[in-house]
Structures are given as C-alpha cells and as structure tokens.
Amino acid sequence: MKFKIKKGDTVAVLAGKDKGKEGKVTQILAKENRIVVEGVNISFKHLRAKQSGQGGQKIQFFAPIDISNVQLLCPKCKKNSRVGIQLTDDKKRVRICKKCQTAID
Ligand SMILES: [Zn+2]
C-alpha cells in the first residue's frame, strides 16, 4: 500500500487554490503522485467546433492535484487526520484515524 488514500475516500484539501474544499477521490495517478478529487481544481478544456458556424465547446473537468496537498477526512470523527497503519490480529493492514483511533477500512 503506497498511498494511504484510496479511490472513494473523502479528502480535505490543505493547500493550493482549493484549500479548505472537501471532495471524493475519483482517480489516483500513482506514478505522478497525484489524485483527482471531485469538485476540486476545476479546469476547462476547449473543444473546437466540428462544423463551421457552431461555437466551440467548453468542457469542465477536475484536474489532478498533488497527493501531498490532501488529507483523509475521517468518516467517523469528520476531521481531516493523519492516517496510521495498524496490523490486526490476523495480520491485515488497516488504516487508522490518528485523531479518533478508529479503523477506516
Ligand atoms: Zn477520526
């Protein structure tokens, strides 16, 4: 487990232009250490008109942000928190919220 954040997690943005926003992780770009978070880092792609006489289209998408700029939002205590890894009795690794000590997985 390289990252402590997984697809489907809700994270809080700690830095950058979307600081303070919260959203769901929709994509993890492991090689680039970046993630895509719903509603965060909104960008626009311009598409050229396919036929003359039509205007080009503006498509909204969420651009990836650096994974170090976010922190997991604990589903239990609703606070952004550092995540610890704990081994269970049957040797499984689970994520632990360091604020409320609850297993997140
Ligand atoms: Zn917690």
Number of strands: 10
In terms of structural class, how would the helical and strand content be classed?
Answer: mainly beta
Sequence of strands across the biggest β-sheet? 6-3-2-1-7-8
SSE ordering? EEEEEEEEEE
**Average of pLDDT:** 92
Binned, the helix content reads under 10%
Biggest beta-sheet profile: 6 strands, antiparallel
Which characteristics define this entry?
elongated; six-stranded antiparallel beta sheet; 105 residues; binds zinc ion; SH3 type barrels
List strands and helices in order, with pairings.
Elements: E1 10-13, E2 22-29, E3 34-37, E4 42-47, E5 57-62, E6 65-66, E7 70-73, E8 80-81, E9 83-87, E10 93-97
Antiparallel strand pairs: 1-2, 1-7, 2-3, 3-6, 4-5, 7-8, 9-10
This protein binds zinc ion.
Notes on the protein architecture:
The structure is a single chain. The chain has a domain at 10-75: SH3 type barrels. It is 0% helix and 44% strand. It has strands at residues 10-13, 22-29, 34-37, 42-47, 57-62, 65-66, 70-73, 80-81, 83-87, 93-97. The strands form three sheets. A six-stranded antiparallel sheet has the order 6-3-2-1-7-8, with no helix packed on it. The two termini are 13 Å apart. The relative contact order is 0.21. The model has no long low-confidence stretch (mean pLDDT 92). The structure holds zinc ion (ZN). Zinc ion is lined by residues 74, 76-77, 79, 81, 97, 99-100, 102.
